[in-house]
Design a protein that fits this description.
By secondary structure, the protein is α/β, with parallel strands linked by helices. It is built from 14 helices and eleven strands. Strands 8-7-6-5-4-3-2-1-9-10-11 form an eleven-stranded mixed β-sheet. β5, α7 and β6 form a beta-alpha-beta unit. α2 runs parallel beside α3 and α4 crosses α6. The two termini are 33 Å apart. Bound molecules: iron/sulfur cluster (2 copies). One iron/sulfur cluster binds next to α14.
Length: 395
Amino acid sequence: MPEVKQLKELEKLEVAGQATRYDFFIQWHLTERCNLRCRHCYQAVRDDAPAGPDLSLAEIGRVMTEISDALGDWARNYRMDFSPSFNLTGGEPLLRADLFDIIAEAGRRGFEVFLLTNGTIITRQRARALRDAGVRGVQVSIEGPEEVHDSIRGMGSFSQAMWGVKNLLGAGLTVTLNATLSGLNAGRMSEMVALALNMGVQRLGFSRLVPYGRGFGLIREMLSARQVKGVYDGLLSLNAEGLGGNGLEIVTGDPLASQMKLPSQMKLSHHEAGGNATGGLATGGSATGGCTAAGGCAAGISGFTILSDGTMTPCRRLPLPLGNVLADSIREVWATSTVLQALRDKGRYSGRCGACRRWADCRGCRAIAYAYSAASNGGRGDFLSEDPQCFIEPE
Ligand code: SF4
Ligand code: SF4
């Protein structure tokens, strides 16, 4: 079974001392309902074809048990230590009346829970309830200063989101502001840093625009490789002491950032963009030349996404259905999906990523590769093509 092959190879890496603890996270879109209509929303691909009903609380509980049992078996069989977590999101997850019951179900099974929200309906009472339910951190999407944010997410959404952030901080929760990088906001990053410092949030995160769903309309706003490098260089050059002294971390799950030399105040986190498989490889640029994926893009390696109707995909931004948790065994999908097998096989990759010595630790963003190739080839996307925004020099 490929699942066994992958785990055995990772076990060998662990023996070699390269990794010790494996993040495994599930991004769960609890509903597609949302109170906003953001211009870049990848979720909005189904605007004209609504999904089936949201999974019920009972169904969600059953699926959580199945995932927990599978991870428990893998941990025992391969002597691997997993750090399992759920990123609960939507649509807007707070539109689900049973959200706090869902969080409790996850906590009972030993999962850490993070919440990804647009922040606009977080009252003080809800913020306290999230804290009391044991949520480990909340990510609020912010696209830039007010006029930039409102032009992308709708008039008035910035001030509403800031109100939500204040309530979260007031309840003592850890808050990440996360921006989707594009031509609409790339020039405003210093203002984002100032905003984060001013609000007193603990983390500021970035992910790259995926031209998919409603975001396809923004394809002209995709940054070039050079522009992405410019933004990341700018973030890296921030005064480490200045940020650290204010308690702000800059975080990203972008595998490309993991190939840069990161200063201590910029960290990789799979909770921002779906990112890296092992925290142990988050110091950048190991360039091992290996063929066992051990870090970088999480798709097919260290987690998957469940959509509101139970459809599984490799990543929240890579719309390739793998099966449905209501009908299929999750272990079987993880082990036998041809899409997941391809994602784990360097020989199937093309272009620069297929030839790259950093493949095991990077693989670029598969969602961007897929969306970009689809946009350039009349809708025929290739999720194994090269990441078009890669700025790393070949070695
Ligand atoms: S070519 Fe692909 S795998 Fe290599 S550094 Fe660039 S994005 Fe990463
Ligand atoms: S495809 Fe990979 S790098 Fe891109 S968002 Fe998904 S997990 Fe992250």
